[in-house]
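input
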Amino acid sequence: MPTLFQINVVANWGSTGRIAEEIGQMAIKCGWKSYIAYGRGKPKSQSKLIRIGNEVDMYRHALISRLLDNHGLNSNKATRKLIDRIRDIKPDIVHLHNIHGYFLNYALLFDFLKDAGIPIVWTLHDCWSFTGHCAHFTFAKCDKWINGCYSCPQINTYPTSFFRDRSKQNYEDKRKSFTSVPNLTLVPVSDWLAGLLKKSFLKEYTIHRIYNGVDLNKFVPMQTSSDVKKRLGIKSKYMLIGVASVWSQRKGLKDFIALREKLSNEYAIVLVGLNEKQIKKLPIGISGISRTSSISELAEYYSAATVVLNLSYEETFGLTTVEGFACGVPGIVYNSTASPELISSETGKIVEVGDIEKLSHAIIDICESQINSEQCRKRAVNLYNKNERYLEYVDLYEKLIGIKSESYNNQ
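output
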């Protein structure tokens, strides 16, 4: 029985944690043993879980990172223990996800992996792996990562540094570690991200794009829209929804507020995932809802909406757009990063970044044209079915180690 060993900052919560969990579930269905090593939280999982370090390790790593701008180069003891576990388990595949987040020393890990002889799959959920500091750079309009970072304009963004700018050295440290392994396959979650990798210091490695998937049994069109709208106090209005796990400037929060001024009272904006402080500051005509971990509740909100708006300035995928499709709802996105590749002419519209006037016209067009919800659902089924996407990972594993499983009956 082959063994999969995944590493991610979280397990079975948050977007990357759920992805790792569901890949593990698919691997188990296909006859694999599955382990997930993680850095924080108290998750439950169908895979065997291994905690990397503890809360004290994490906070110590975060403090040193903020003081020295050396994120990912602490947690030495915790990483050595992790390496010992990998040696004991002897996995057939090591699958990396987000190895940043104050829990792991990447230099120690890659020093072990370069000689371990284990095929490595690395899913890139953001851009941290090939920059000297940041996880995203489009909003900052920075392209220094192409040739080598320096004088970072985003030192005060995650992973925050209080004083020091070590971006030039961080870039070289990452380049040295991440290009040291001979058997690495990179898995970007969008064609856009794949294009960036081909410009980065990781460009010599095999790149295999696999889209993120959604649970089409949970994200489904629901017949509760009238109840949801009544609860929100918007009755027969067109409902425009935006969803984010953390709302920030790059997620387009200010654009939603500017949009409110452009639209008539026929349109109601609902934002899911705001904190209490943000909710209190919302203008009349925008309803704020705290973050929910309930997929059924989220599916109800999507299903009640007329349009899903993703006004993010930078997305490596754009999961909210796809979740909306699964619930039969069209989307509007900005013409930036990975978002446009999710949209077809039958399922939504693309507008230029920050053009609130054109955005308002696009919303009116969709609301008046009533895009066929079946086309939206069909796009989710054809391209973003989580079972098919995560089976694609298992197929990749088996190709790398030269086997073929027969245990999964739903292929």
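quick obs: The first strand starts at residue 3 and ends at 8.
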